[in-house]
Amino acid sequence: MIRCSENHLNIEDKGTMKVLHDIVDTKHGADLWGSLPCDPWSQWQTLNVHQYGQAFADDLEARRQKSRALIKKFCNLARVVARRGGRVSFEWPRFCIGWSDQELHKLIRDLNMMVVDFDGCQMGLTDSKGGLHLKRWRLITIRTTVQLGYSMH
Questions:
Q1: Which helix (H) or strand (E) holds 41?
Q2: Would the pTM of this model clear 0.85, i.e. be above it?
Q3: Long-range contacts, stretch 95-99, CB < 8 angstroms, 24+ apart
């Protein structure tokens, strides 16, 4: 397993993307799981734009452009992984505005991915007090075992 983050193997760096492509080229059947930062796509951002005005809206658009670049890199790597026999999954909060991104829609179509919606409480996710936690997720996947596991809950 290789974990990429902003501080370690940052996918914004071209060198990191080359390393990842090299791994996929040599490790046929490697799996890819993506979860990019979703804060530029939160539904709260709509309210924030109204509350904080044009300067906030301009900054938000810049953050969304950066996010779109990350989405595109993920989608390109996902296609390579799938061609090499690997499985691809990507998750974000269910109502994240980023799900409307055309690059993600194209990936779903190209790889014939299944969309799976589930809630954290269905999976036994609990808060710090032990109570069930309602966190709404959406997963796109070509992983049959993942599809079956989540759809059965």
A1: none
A2: yes
A3: 95/43, 95/136, 96/38, 96/41, 96/42, 96/43, 96/138, 97/41, 97/42, 97/43, 97/45, 97/46, 98/38, 98/40, 98/41, 98/67, 98/71, 99/41, 99/138
